[in-house]
Amino acid sequence: MKNRVTGLGGFFFKCEDPDAQKQWYKDRLGIPTDQYGWTFWWHDENGKKCSTQWSPFAKDTQ
Fold first, then answer.
1. Which end of the chain is least crowded, N or C, by CB within 10 Å?
2. How far apart are CA 57 and CA 3, in angstroms?
3. What is the pTM of this model?
4. Distance of CA 60 to the CA centre of its chain
5. Has residue 45 got a pLDDT over 90?
6. 52: exposed, middle or buried (C-beta count within 10 Å: 0-12, 13-18, 19+)?
7. Contact 17/59 with Cβ under 8 angstroms?
8. What is the pLDDT of residues 4-38, one digit of tens each?
9. Mind giving me the DSSP string for 10-62?
10. Taking phi first (over 0 means left), then psi (-120 to 50 degrees means alpha), and beta for anything else, what does residue 47 get?
């Protein structure tokens, strides 16, 4: 068996104003953001349901 990436758990990044960032993506790209960002769902090659999280954090987040 070859080792390979089968999914991506999330995109987590820091920014000046996470709430403004989420609102910008919601308003301009139609992404249905919530308090955590956006969870998008997809299926792997075997049809298993998977998710990836997109979340902006405050720039001082440790």
1. N
2. 31
3. 0.77
4. 19
5. no
6. middle
7. no
8. 777 788 999 999 999 999 999 999 999 999 999 99
9. EEEEEES-HHHHHHHHHHHH----BTTBEEEEEE-TT--EEEEEEEEEETT--
10. left
Residue type, 25: Y
Comparing CA positions, the residue from 2, 35, 6, 17 lying closest to residue 54 is 35
Asked if residue 45 lies in contact with residue 2, where contact means CB atoms within 8 angstroms, the answer is no
CB atoms within 10 A of CB 17: 12
Collect all residues with Cβ–Cβ distance below 8 Å to 52 and sequence separation of at least 6. 7, 8, 9, 10, 11, 39, 40, 42
Q: Higher confidence at residue 1 or residue 2?
A: 2
Structure tokens at 57: 């954090």
